[in-house]
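Dear U.,

For the methods section draft, I wanted the exact inputs and outputs in one place so we can describe them consistently. I've listed the two proteins in the order they'll appear in the manuscript figures. Please don't edit the token lines directly; just add comments below if something needs changing.

First protein:
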Amino acid sequence: MNVADRCVIATDSEEVAAAARECGAEAMLTSADHASGTDRVAEVARRHEFAGFDAVLNVQGDEPFVSADALKGALGMLGRTFSIGTAAVRASAAILAEPSVVKVVTADDGRALYFSRAPIPFLRETRDADDSALLRDRVRQHIGVYAYTRDALARWVVLPPHPLERIERLEQLRPLAAGWPIGVAVIAGPLRRGIDTETDLAQANSEWSIFSGEPA
């Protein structure tokens, strides 16, 4: 994708690391005690061979079809305003009823206001056509990719887990609850689901079979 200077698969699984290396990818084993992907990435980023990198990009393992636009968008949020960036895509209101899909609402400057598995924004007056139209233009599906400055990554992982993070099982609520601004790049799409359910996994396996030419 020509986005990063170096790509490393961080995992606590020998099986995953071996499979990655067989495909020619670089893999590093980490502790099995990490509570989140960011904690795992931080362990790798602390190694001396990565000391010269100013920014770290974390693509979660359940986002196998993440686009270059999402990666570039997250990285592009880093700057004077944001030390953490992520991405989202415009989506239909249908995702509001799916707790497996993470939604995000943002301020006008792109700053994340909240991430949730619940329906946000929530349409209170379902019979109001104007409100329904406003909702349709504000639904955003979060994409599991994060960009951090080196300092932000190091500070994130020393924060204690926040109750909101534990309730929603969303690691990004830890820095958000601490008052850190997270920039959200809204990309045009296409809308690609992560792997959060058995149905998502079956669909991903089917798509991969088509892509690789292997039998489904």
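Second protein (the one for the lower panel):
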Amino acid sequence: MNNKIVAIHQPNFLPWLGFFYKMLKSDVFVFLDNVQFSKNSYQNRVKIKSSQGAIWLTVPVLHNFGQLTTEVQINNKEPWREKHLKTLELNYKRTAFFKPVFELLQEIYFKEEWELLADFNIELITNISKFLGIKTEMIKASSLNVSGKSTDLLIDIVKKLDGSVYLSGRGGANYQDEEKFKANGIELKYSDFVHPVYPQLWGEFIEGLSIIDLLFNCGEKSLEYIK
């Protein structure tokens, strides 16, 4: 019997650990880039750790209400790339794996003049996945010729990929129609991710930060913490 697991999520900016756990536990991971963008969600900002506690790292965007995630442009009139890298250097240069992780990020940030937020985010996620050793197949929802909204869209994506299991984040329970999955012969599973405690700089441990906080502190051991 086909037990192909499909996970689906918006292409967030430098996401938290649970995002990569879901990717690790699926056979195909779909970037949900064909839905409405919500500004100042985790799609264009994330928390990192500083000596003052958690702070936001934000990609400035040019965005009209109702725009799809694929259409959202980065505001390149602002020197956001230099600002981000300076912030990361300031807060993480004393970590054990600063050099390799910073070089990886620097390379992606300046690979091109990023115009679209989704392209930049997906480039970051795919390269970080490689760094972690995650081999899950990744695909954009916009390339699948799917339709529908909310639960119907998720079902259409899973079917298009011949999946039999949909792996959801826990938050999905608040808005998904669980009966519809059953009616379409798709098993609905929720992620059982438990946030690990790992070595961090700057005092008391904070969970829910960007994956890069883990990478800077733990390097190649990061995947073991995610698992």
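Candidate sentences for the figure legend, describing the second protein: Residues 5-220 form one domain. The first strand starts at residue 5 and ends at 9.

Thanks,
Y.
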